[in-house]
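for the writeup, i need someone to sanity check this before i put it in the appendix. the sequnce is what the collaborator sent (i think, or maybe the updated version? ugh). structure was predicted straight from it, no edits. if anything looks off just tell me and ill rerun, i have time this weekend
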Amino acid sequence: MRRTAVRAAAGGEPQEALPAAAVPESASGTGPASGSASAFAAPGTAAAPAPAPYRLQTEFPFELPRGYVDDAGTVHRDGVMRLATARDELVPLRDIRVQENPAYLSVVLLGRVITRLGSLPLVHDGVVENMFASDLAFLQDFYRQVNAEGHTRASVQCPHCSEPFEVELGGSRLGES
């Protein structure tokens, strides 16, 4: 089964289609006119506003701990990383550098998903391989957070005292799901 996205009227960005039951009557044109009370609202109460449509965040800003220093000596710290696709994780596996040295996977992968870094016109694996080790480690962790729905922590409960706390689930190598 193939899913398709519905285009927004104003922005033109894809949105997840809502089931017919989730579309407010005033938006579908089949129920009461806009501005009138819902047929299901209790007398003297306002109808609840319709939930905002779901928007998937695909780009995430970051700031490097040290920053990438280009050939002119300019330090670039602010950047944007986008969500990785299956293709982003598969294509580097065909790269000869990755086949010879699996540790190079994270460099190639980050070069694909970082869309902006400071005022650099283009970010690629050559930029990533010349970053400081602390910035590379930061980006690897940030990649895991972004692609694990925002965090790599899980809420758990102590089996002895029943106190809730969070544990870090991260730690696997970048590019391995």
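The CA atoms of residues 128 and 136 lie 7 Å apart. Helices lie at 25-28, 86-90, 96-100, 105-113, 125-129, 133-147.
thx in advance!!
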